[in-house]
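Hi X.,

You mentioned you wanted examples for the new student's onboarding notes, showing what a folding record looks like when two proteins sit in one file. Here is a clean example. The first protein comes first, with its sequence line followed by its structure tokens.
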Amino acid sequence: MFIFRRVIQTSDAISTFPLTLSRIALGLFFFASGFNKLFVFENQQLMLETLVDAGIPFPAVMAVFVAFCECVIGLTLAMGLLTRLSALVLFIISTVALLTVGLHTIPQGINLLTWYSWLLYLPETLYMLLCLMLMVYGGTYLSLDGWLAKKWLNARKIVFVH
């Protein structure tokens, strides 16, 4: 009976660990991606060409803006600061990338199941799913959000004690 309870038992510490690793990995990915688009000339050019080809308005401005958002918000996501908001912004960036570039890489004239398989091969789809999980669950206790929430709750207990 003990083993069965242990198998089905959930714990905040253990159950959120994979989500924490996903948050940190995804945040660092976006940070590195944005950093390279900001400071590596070849990546700047590639980003600008991609936005021009996708028909994004004001491509020169948007290239810097999106790269800056990826860099800064990726870092806040990795730290777990404003996790839900960070995940939302990165979800939007990934959605735009999927709709303007990614979907066009899927071959035409394939059946629905094969199309779905191709969709899940695209990295933007998986970034969106990870961001969605982070928007729902937040930063967990292993984040700056969790630390700040704990500090705020403790401060409220001290202030409102009768």
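Then the second protein repeats the pattern, sequence line and then tokens:
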Amino acid sequence: MNQKIILFTIILIVLGLGISEVTAITDAETQANDILNKNNTDSKVLVVYFSRTGENYNVGNVEVGNTAMVASYIKEYLKADSFEIVPVDKYPEKYDECTDIAQKEKNDNARPKIQDKINNFDSYDTVFIGYPIWWGDLPMIMYTFMEEYDFNGKNVIPFNTHEGSGDAGTYPSIQTKLPNAKVNTKGLALDGKTARSDDGKQQTIDWLKGLGY
């Protein structure tokens, strides 16, 4: 009987620790979601981002992706609008399965479809573009996005998350892809853990200040 009580107590302790950990993560991500889900219709700045939830390298399972966290810092600081790039065909939650699909898309030069449209894209003067680095490149869905809209004359500022590859040369790639836009290649590249931290938020704000905001 005593053994059963001890075992039951251990289970409760383990579950309690798990619940507190999940709650802490949820609180941090909820704030980001609250920021990203509210738009200021008068803003001339748009933060567009693609970010994957689920199992992520080096940070575990997340409800708000690494790039989305950075997007929330930019949006909050600039009081900008935001648009999340959501694929029609959702990527797998498992990290390895997702990387396999991402590699195939890159090899095929695929253009994954995006769920929604930005109806008032012409009203924005500046577009921040955020993404993770997949196989040393932008995710192919980012090329879909850049090909669907007219960036003529717009200020384009990239930012990205990574796990050791920095920006992987993607800022000049965006400049080449959008020749009629004014692409600022002094982007921001944060690794996943930093992107999810107070330090990452401060680095983002310092970067924005350095850009003149």
